[in-house]
Amino acid sequence: MEKTYTNTFPLTMTSSEKQETICIFGTGDFGRSLGYKMLQCGYSVVFGSRNPQMSSLLPSGAEVLSYSEAAQKSDVVILTIHREHYGFLTELTEVLKEKVLVDVSNNLKINQYPESNAEYLAQLVPGAHVVKAFNTISAWALQSGAMDASRQVFVCGNDGKAKQRVVDIVRTLGLTPLDQGSLLAANEIENYPLQLFPMWRLPFYLSAALGLFFFSYCVLRDVIYPYINEKQDSTFRLAISIPNRVFPITALILLALVYFPGVIAAILQLYRGTKYRRFPAWLDHWMLCRKQLGLVALGFAFLHVIYTLVIPIRYYVRWRLRNITIAQIMDKKENPFSASSAWLSDSYVSLGILGFFLFVLLGITSLPSVSNTVNWREFRFVQSKLGYLTLILCTAHTLVYGGKRFLSPLSLRWGLPSAYVLALVIPCTVLVTKFILIMPCIDKTLTRIRQGWERNYKYSKSALNGRSDI
Ligand SMILES: Cc1cc2nc3c(=O)[nH]c(=O)nc-3n(C[C@H](O)[C@H](O)[C@H](O)COP(=O)(O)OP(=O)(O)OC[C@H]3O[C@@H](n4cnc5c(N)ncnc54)[C@H](O)[C@@H]3O)c2cc1C
Ligand SMILES: NC(=O)C1=CN([C@@H]2O[C@H](COP(=O)(O)OP(=O)(O)OC[C@H]3O[C@@H](n4cnc5c(N)ncnc54)[C@H](OP(=O)(O)O)[C@@H]3O)[C@@H](O)[C@H]2O)C=CC1
Ligand code: HEM
Ligand SMILES: [Fe+3]
Question: Counting Cβ atoms within 10 Å, is residue 277 exposed (0-12), middle (13-18) or buried (19+)?
């Protein structure tokens, strides 16, 4: 614990205690940055290099020696060398015996080698205690001092004492060590910085696919159809009208897809009569990226709202209103006020506004600073109950928008219904299924299953034993 404080007052420590010497192999970007940070935090640093005389740009105060000379100066050796160049270490096995050897390396691709770099290092230098650490911190972050990205350092190793020494160093440098267990965890730790938004990938591809499909569908109905049938140029619709169909439709379907896996999971649990069997991998993954799906949906809903706000200032809309008025004057025929149309129009807009309000509320509660202030039940209440209410309101908004035209043969073009009719299929399926699932008799069984009850205890036990098949 004391070390944490020495981080803030390195000079106090250096004047009263003997400086601990750390050896860093390699004088590249990462080695230099780490050495600089260590000197700042009160350590004495010795670099090991192929060309001790040639090394430039090294932080002042550090010593540079050959690899074998440097290793003799400390019992902690941090290896800031790419895995491909580890070969020369086999000649140093005697010097490195019983030393703590820290592997910081990353690869270019996930699972690039059959074994992790740290395990490979342990095979090369069997006498040393290999510890994996620091691979999630960048040279730039260490040097600039501004830790915009994560300060977490995953640490793993087979020797408890060696690991503890590295954990102490990490803490002294002002970083957060996270013990990940034995060297078997190195593979996962090495893959971690190579991942690029893994949970965002499915939402991204899904929204791209939905967007593309509905865009083509709307172009076919709203641009190509009028051109072929009436030789009318409607290409201007590509700018606002069609995006303002594609975006809300994508938002609505993605929102429904957030709540779909929960329904599928419930049906699966009811069918199996137990909660003790794993869900298929695709369902697991789908469940895990619901937050990201929801946030992408919120993004599209935002776009829809902004596009809707500009409707009154559009040239096409103003032109059409003027023409209708002029046509009425010329015909001397007044278009009577229709209370039912007014009701329909106001209702769908109002449902949209309320749905959007709850949608934003869901987004706000998913911010860590907010979710940390609510307890588990409150969070679930907002995410699950208010989430369903959001889906109901947005689906109703679209249904009422369709209003009287919904499924009317007049709105078919080449037999194709309006895009929003297709958009309603998944949301309505989710809502109807959920409605059936919350019927008291079904809900009671599901709740019992989720509390641990099993329909066929014997069967479930055997399923438990043979878990690998599920
Ligand atoms: C804008 C937006 C932001 C979002 N942000 C987040 C976020 O920050 N974090 C997040 O997690 N999700 C987020 N989501 C996704 C979504 O709101 C949640 O995943 C939501 O909890 C799903 O609700 P559900 O009713 O389908 O949950 P389900 O998983 O179906 O759960 C329903 C109920 O069943 C219970 N249950 C389910 N499975 C079991 C089981 N095996 N054993 C016992 N009980 C069980 C649960 O406790 C719950 O009460 C967000 C969505 C949107 C639209
Ligand atoms: N850069 C970063 O932000 C991060 C890097 N890492 C890891 O740190 C390690 C070093 O990265 P980085 O400093 O960027 O790399 P560099 O290429 O900048 O430095 C590597 C150093 O390795 C030494 N080395 C030893 N043998 C050889 C050899 N045969 N050929 C070339 N170099 C050799 C060299 O030092 P000398 O000439 O003194 O012998 C060289 O400077 C890598 O494993 C990387 O994955 C981890 C996290 C972040
Ligand atoms: C402030 C909130 C909202 C307002 C004011 C609003 C308003 C509108 C308007 C005016 C239309 C008709 C657009 C047109 O004539 O082309 C529309 C359509 C639609 N809205 Fe909203 N809306 C809101 C929020 C939402 C939300 C949150 C969703 C769902 C996620 C949604 C889904 C839809 C859908 C699917 C359509 C049909 C698109 C089409 O095929 O034309 N809306 N909305
Ligand atoms: Fe490099």
Answer: middle
Q: Domain 201-466, CATH 1.20.120 — does that match?
A: yes
Among 27, 34, 82, 154, residue to substitute to test ligand 2 (most atoms within 8 Å of Cβ): 82
Query: Sheet holding 76-79: strands in order across?
Result: 63-66, 44-49, 21-25, 76-79, 100-103, 129-132, 152-157, 176-179
Where in the chain are all domains bearing CATH 1.20.120? 201-466
pTM above 0.80?
no
How distant, in Å, are the alpha carbons of 5, 133, 201, 301 from that of 136? 23, 8, 21, 35
282: number of Cβ within 10 Å: 10
**pLDDT tens string 345-379:** 999 999 999 999 999 999 999 998 888 888 889 89
Instruction: Reduce the DSSP state of residue 23 to 3 states and report it.
Output: strand
Task: Evaluate: CB of 390 within 6 angstroms of ligand 3.
Answer: no
Residues of the chain with CATH 3.40.50.720: 2-194
- CA distance readout (Å), 90 to 71, 82, 184, 333: 13, 15, 22, 97
Question: Long-range contacts of range 398-403, CB-CB < 8 Å, 24 or more positions apart?
Answer: 398/248, 398/252, 398/348, 398/423, 398/424, 398/427, 399/424, 400/344, 400/347, 400/348, 400/351, 401/348, 401/352, 403/344, 403/348
- Distance in Å, CA 101 to ligand 2 centroid: 15
CATH of domain 2-194: 3.40.50.720
